[in-house]
Amino acid sequence: MTDNTTSISSAGRPDTGVSALKGRTGAGAPAETRGKTTIADGVVAKIAGMAAREIPGIHNLGGGMARAFGAVRERVPGGGGGGVSRGVKVEVGERQAAVDLDIVVEYGVSIVEVTGDVRANVIGAVERMTGLEVVEVNISVDDVHLPDEEESEPEEGRVR
What we know:
- By secondary structure, this protein is α+β, with helices and mostly antiparallel strands.
- It has 3 helices and 6 strands.
- Helix 1 packs across helix 3 (111-130).
């Protein structure tokens, strides 16, 4: 994922390049309007990932392969891994963001209700914390976690 960034005014609204008080810049402008804030895509992805995980009925984020690959990367020193943003992809523009989520739900929950709750929570968190308008949250339900299933650990390779 490329590390794109977006700028918002220090007042929490998308930066339009125009001072909140027209004609007043520099020392004469209010402190909260001096300068701009830049938010990296990874920040938006982490916010969305945390917000999605807060919803009851969500077992995990990321499809089977994404979870396995992320688990391997987390065990390799310096491998990074997805962590909070595993299963989350974002597109961030100057004033808007779009979010794609891959989720695993718990068996027995209403997928329609859980995905609706996830959408609402992700939109609320991203908009509140970044000032960006979230235009869509696309959710792919990749699996259902059964009560007697253990998390499958990826097999370790033969070579170290």
